[in-house]
Request: fold
Amino acid sequence: MNGIIIINKPKGYTSHDIVSKVKKITHEKIGHTGTLDPLATGVLPLLVGKGTLCSKYLINHDKEYIATIKLGIKTTTADKEGEIIQTENVQDFKIEYIKKILKEFLGEQNQIPPIYSAIKVNGKKLYEYARKNQKVEIKPRKINIYEIDLLEYNNIENEVKFKVQCSKGTYIRSLCEDIAEKLGTIGFMTELQRTQVGEFNINQAVSIDKINEDIIKQNIITIENLFKNKNSIEIDKRRLELFLNGVRLSTDLKSDIYRIYCEDKFVGIGEVKNKLLKRDIIVI
Reply:
């Protein structure tokens, strides 16, 4: 099995838990394109077998989330796994005002990642500094918010539920705190569901609780299918042998990624650069 399987990660599982479970079923090398915290649910693309070689094409994907903010409470981790460090009374907001505040986050901006994150500073992960109460400078990172919409406002529970489409590297916990601050209060993230990673949607995702070999085979996105929007190249057996041995083949095609076939059989992925075709991902 070579390709990508989209898992709907349930709450309470780490991404490593999911990888381990699928690895035991497939007995293949397994990778992923970005972890989800145990608190979070939703889309977790797993790379299976030679699908792991596709990671370089997938790591910069944009993402979509549905998140809920609890207003009036601040925690150490910016989510409900942390300790409460501050509380305050929250005013009743008008829905149109919340929508207006959310729209102020559209576009490219700097975001300061949460201290409880795996970003490395001077060789140590930020959460390692946090656990030892050590001070560390956290530099802001460029992110982009493409769409952000209010889904629900519960003025009894002081909760704001919203959907956001954003660039890779966006921390939704930090976004939740920033939204609360713009509303003139404090807050933390109580729920998070990732609904899309690049072209992979929650509707494609399979439940990890029901996963087995047959379900993986039925739902795996093959490498050929993953690159279905790329043009194809047909090569004969002689050139195929050269290609598989790493020889760069001359071509008049423009620089790009191509699906490679021999006698109508899918061989793998090749890259054309400077009028030369070289092998990239081989599946035969």
About this structure: DSSP finds seven helices and 20 strands in the chain.
